[in-house]
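The aim of this short unit is practical: by the end, you should be able to scan a pair of folded records and say something sensible about each. We start with the first protein, listed as its amino acid sequence and then its structure tokens.
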Amino acid sequence: MGPVLRAPIEFGVILTLARFLLNEREMPGKMITLQDFQFASFEQKCDVVTCYSNFLSVRQLGDCKVYLYHTDRFFIEVYYASNHKKVLMINAFNDSGSLDPYAEMVSLADLNF
């Protein structure tokens, strides 16, 4: 994994730089498949998260925050350790079972049902 980031803003700056440094031929954006994403470099995964996905939710997992995003084809989880200010892992999936931890956070009362 990359170096430990010293401030939260550095993470955003690095992601922005990654977007500009990547060649569009290597990163087809919304047309990327789950398998392509899983084999992409960390920088390419960051580019997909920042440029081609939509934020859906966040959950707490121990000392980590897990941010959930969605592309047109699959879901992405970004595991972020707040105490270290570091992304620990980026996971992608397209099976509904992996959404169960997020479904537990939804209340029908909040949806006015």
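Turning to the second protein, read its sequence before its tokens, just as you did above.
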Amino acid sequence: MSIRKNPIYLLVLIIVALIIVIVYRYDQYVIKDNFILTAAVVCDPSNEGCFVADCDATDPACDVTPYKKVSILASEAPECVQEHSCETFQCVPGTSCKITYCSEASLEDGEICLLP
């Protein structure tokens, strides 16, 4: 009996491949924190181009705190970025960190720029 003609071997092969993919992804995302973390950190509009939510300031759900966007590998991120509580944040040289300041090109729906 050939391996190609027996569907059990094919099923076992598919299950083993799925297990390998799941274990690899678990290792990358959970164990090694190998994913990009995007967070909003405090921004000083007197020195930097900052994002602000474009909403009614009288609405209690509206947060008009100026912010800049940070993208960094989760394994390299300080705890304050992961908790969205950084008062001051600078990228450390040699990391995958990227800070996005507000500009016309970086605006998304529901945001406005505060420029210095």
